[in-house]
Automatic annotation (TrEMBL):
Pfam families: Pterin_4a. Belongs to the pterin-4-alpha-carbinolamine dehydratase family. Its EC number is 4.2.1.96. It comes from Nocardia aurea. The keyword Lyase applies. It comes from the Bacteria. GO terms for molecular function: 4-alpha-hydroxytetrahydrobiopterin dehydratase activity. HAMAP family: Pterin_4_alpha. InterPro entries: PCD_sf (IPR036428), Pterin_deHydtase (IPR001533). It is an enzyme of class 4 (lyase). The lineage of its organism: Bacteria, Bacillati, Actinomycetota, Actinomycetes, Mycobacteriales. This is Putative pterin-4-alpha-carbinolamine dehydratase.
Amino acid sequence: MSTELLTESEIAEAVATLPDWTRTGSTLTRTLEAGSFLSGIELVGAVAELAEAADHHPDIDIRWRKITFALSTHSAGGLTRLDVSLAHEIDRLAPRFS
């Protein structure tokens, strides 16, 4: 998958398909609340497997049952299709852990 930076219009289109995500500068962020602390850790594990397979790793903050994922392609200096793809994958996984 491409690590070329997305244009502003491509970012706007992507954000429109990710209603639970917030864009701040060159980062997409979403905070989820898991059903329990253990469920949250299991969600992090599931995302970690996807991230490792894609060689694209999010910043993750865990606060009890609240997990915040921050996506940005640091090597490219901003948002790429890798970030959008991983955001959609996190959205797909999230309901299993709430």
